[in-house]
Specification:
9 helices, about 60% helix
């Protein structure tokens, strides 16, 4: 799985480079394709993916052949949904982690006080989530967290999975962080 987040950032960089190479401002490009300057900015900052606008930009800049195909492929991949987007209640931070991990070749982490999510067993993750919920209302659920953790851990077992390296402080292993 290719990370849509990483692809959006790559698409944004490609579009900025193409516009810069043509010597156009946001306003000039926006006029050429009949869109607003804000729309160009959103595309070039990776906030949105609109394949139709990307194709209009490429046509307006005279991009063709293999380069056109490459950029349109990046745009298509950037617009795809990952498995984590259908997992309800897993939380935004864990969804972003899953998105980034999907496109990674190596994952390196350092944790001083807690076990990282990719090493947490279900009982540990549930206990941590339930303890956190007693302190403040959470925008995610224990079941969503467990489903997200399981999906992220499955990703490490797939063919071509990223390597995983983690450094844990002894405190992370010995500290009682959940009942």
């Amino acid at each position: 799985m290719i990370s849509p987040h990483v692809r959006r950032l790559r698409l944004a960089a490609e579009l900025r480079a193409l516009r810069g190479g043509a010597g156009l401002t946001h306003e000039q490009l926006a006029k050429r394709i009949g869109e607003s300057r804000a729309q160009i900015s959103r595309l070039e900052n990776g906030h949105i993916v609109d394949q139709a606008d990307v194709m209009k930009i490429l046509d307006a800049l005279g991009v063709g052949g293999q380069r056109w195909t490459e950029v349109v492929t990046i745009a298509r991949e950037a617009g795809e949904k990952g498995w984590w987007e259908s997992t309800r209640g897993m939380g935004e931070r864990q969804a972003l982690s899953a998105d980034l991990e999907a496109g990674a070749t190596t994952i390196r982490e350092y944790h001083q006080t807690f076990l990282p999510g990719l090493l947490q067993i279900p009982e540990y993750a549930r206990a941590r989530t339930e303890v956190s919920a007693t302190l403040e209302p959470l925008p995610f659920t224990a079941e969503g967290v467990l489903a997200g953790r399981a999906g992220r851990q499955r990703m490490l077992r797939r063919p071509g999975a990223p390597t995983y390296e983690v450094i844990l402080d002894e405190l992370a292993v010995r500290r009682l962080t959940a009942p």
